Amino acid sequence: MTQQLGLPETRAVPALTGSRVVLAHDYLTQFGGAERVALSMTRAFPQAPLLTSFYDPERTFAGFGDVKVVPSGLNRVGLLRDDPRRALPLLAFLWDRVEAPEADVVLCSSSGWSHGVRTEARKIVYCHNPARWLYQPEDYRIGTGRGAMLGLRTIDRRLRAWDLAAARTAHTYVANSQVVARRIARTYGVEAQVLHPPVMVDLDAPREPVPGLPDDFFLVVGRTRGYKNVSVTVEAFAAMPDLHLVVVGAHGEDGWPANVHAVPVVSEPQLRHLYAHARTLVATAHEDFGLTVIEAGAFGTPAIALASGGYLETVREGVSGRFFAEPTVEAVRRAVRAELAEPTDRDGARHNASRFGEHEFHRRLRELVDAG
Question: Which of 18, 28, 117, 209 has the most CB atoms in a 10 Å sphere around its CB?
Answer without folding.
Answer: 28
